[in-house]
Amino acid sequence: MANDTNDAMSVSGAAGAETTSLIEFRDVVFSYAGHTVVDGVSLRVNRGELVALLGPNGCGKTTIMRLINGLELADAGAYLFDGRVVDAAYLKNSAAAQKFHQRVGFVFQNADAQLFCATVGEEVAFGPAQMGLPADELERRVCDAMELFQVADLVDASPYQLSGGQKKRVALAAVVSMNPDILVLDEPTNGLDEDSCDIVVNFLLAYVAAGKTVLMSTHHQDLVRRLGARAIYIDRYHHVVEAPSPSYGTESGATD
Questions:
Q1: For 108-150, how does the pLDDT look when each residue is reduced to its tens digit (9 = 90+)?
Q2: What's the per-residue H, E or C state across the chain?
């Protein structure tokens, strides 16, 4: 499964310059209802990396992920995806926006916010069906994704009748079936039992080993260690910091 190439210059842009960054924030600022929730954040995520975003509740982790997925737009600064600036003008181009959302796979912390089809099979097939794939390729992707997350036996079940762990695995399968270049995961193991957590961890390790990229938010230092992830810490003032507070690894649960 080959990654798309992108010949675009970066914003700073000497001709012919290349970047290894898939995600780059340059002094990004974002406010909601007059309250600054991302304050001058600069960070990079390179191709093939597994990166964990950590910090206390309310520091802006979820907002950063929404910015990365194009669900919010920066008030100031720049967000670059694969060397291209992602802003309102870029996302107004329907072809560019569709390609962008195929390449950036976002899994919400609350799977109920993501699932909307009548059956699990329809849920997993929805994304790749929008890509105009041949029927055999569509079927292969759906079957592979359901097998990966061990939800193939739920193909005809309603997502709304599933357990929390099953819903999370269906949401993951639905995103992975589109073969994104990067998976952006908000608290991917919250609410999962040990078996479901193992499925997710093993998949993420294999995904990165295959050359893909993962960015996740988490409160759990043990998960970061288990995945061997590079950690980026955001402090309570919404700034990237070099070292974690000792309390970061003990917090749990709530979204930003």
A1: 988 888 888 999 999 999 988 888 888 899 999 999 999 999 9
A2: CCCCCCCCCCCCCCCCCCCCEEEEEEEEEEEECCEEEEEEEEEEEECCCEEEEECCCCCCHHHHHHHHCCCCCCCEEEEEECCEECCHHHHHCHHHHHHHHHHEEEECCCHHHCCCCCCHHHHHHHHHHCCCCCHHHHHHHHHHHHHHCCCHHHCCCCHHHCCHHHHHHHHHHHHHCCCCCEEEEECCCCCCCHHHHHHHHHHHHHHHHCCCEEEEECCCHHHHHHHCCEEEEECCCCCEECCCCCCHHHCCCCCC
